[in-house]
Write a structure and sequence with these properties.
single chain, alpha/beta, Undecaprenyl pyrophosphate synthetase, six-stranded parallel β-sheet, two-stranded antiparallel sheet, 43% helix, globular
Amino acid sequence: MLKEIDGQMLEIPQHVAIILDGNGRWAKKRFMPRNYGHTQGSRNVEEMCEVAWNLGIKYLTVYAFSTENWKRPESEIEALMKLLRNYLKDCIKRTTKNNMRVRVIGDKAGLREDIRESIINLEEVSKVNTGLNFTIAINYGSRDEMIRAMVELAKDIGNHKINADAITEELFAGYLDTTDIPEPDLLIRTSGEQRLSNFLLWQLAYTEFYFTDVLWPDFKRRDLIKAIEYYNGRERRFGAV
């Protein structure tokens, strides 16, 4: 979709995925605890949802908590889970106000029961909304996602629901957490790191990557526009070698 943004015509990516990185470093630069950075990062997610929708982005997916994040210090994990609980509860009000649909991807079975219940409630309440499609990756790892998908696929083959010879990329994609969500057009990673960190490995096959040194709590509208400008400068050639 072409849209005029700050005096220039830009092709707006339909789906933007973001690896939210740099909360801890942002806090350290301010001589504050890491948890303060996570809190500010969470607030920035709320702001960027509105910014993305106003720019014309239809789908926004953020990497909030990975399967590897369980290796962090227990105190930090507990603080992150408390922040997640509060965010999920507050998000219900915001989804209704902003007409936003929210989905959570990842291994929900690995989360505590009260968090799973909040996720179910949030997804149910927001499923009728027609605004921004906001997806949060929680306890998510792409390898884990694909293994879970293969287990379910193997069960269906074993139950004779599917013939193994009929397996295609499209069929397998239907077993992933992101079924019914288009693949990202643009991936953004903040804080200067240039790796995928086990995020959407299947879905990012033809995605444009944009890396920025900006720490996530400092990532604002101007930074998202820079990423979209970069996206516009790329020559999208599918199937090229």
